[in-house]
Amino acid sequence: MTSNMKSQLLLELRKNNELMRKSLQESRLQVGKETHSYHYANENKMIAKHVLNGKTEKEWAKENNINYNIRKHINLKQLSHLSYLHGIDRRLISEDIEYKERNIALSKLSEDWMEFWEEI
Q1: For the CA atoms of 67, 71, 76, 81, what is the dihedral angle to 10 degrees?
Q2: Is residue 35 within 8 Å of 93, Cβ to Cβ?
Q3: How many angstroms separate the CA atoms of 4 and 73, rounded?
């Protein structure tokens, strides 16, 4: 795994995560709701479960005996997948898609993403 490639993916993931956070805050603000840290955590948990075979980052880290910051430990494919889903989630939030529907959509798109990468 090249460190340059991983660095680029980490930057992309940070950007997509920040854009997702802004979209969530704006979406909730438009309907007069406050956004709390647990709202962001819920989004991150939902996305991580699609990338980490149904596990949260915390569960995956414990299972793999690493610190909680899994982004330094996951492989390039997982990192790319995580970034991709953050970007999709941001778009779905911007379109006012509810959490449960976003989860369903992310599940399908995640499966499609994995099938695509298995064919390569």
Answers
A1: 130
A2: no
A3: 15
Residue at 38: amino acid letter: Y
Q: Which amino acid is at 67?
A: N
The end-to-end CA distance of the chain, in Å, is 17
pLDDT digits (tens, 9 = 90+) for 66-105: 987 888 899 999 999 999 999 999 999 999 999 999 999 9
Q: 3-state class of 116 per DSSP? A: helix
Q: What is the rounded CA–CA span in Å between residue 117 and residue 19?
A: 25
Cα separation, 89 vs 105, whole angstroms = 9
Are residues 87 and 13 in contact, defined by beta-carbon separation less than 8 angstroms?
Answer: no
| pLDDT value for 1 | 52
- The Cβ of residue 10 has, within 10 Å, a number of other Cβ atoms equal to 15
Q: What is the pTM of this model?
A: 0.90
Type of residue at 20? M
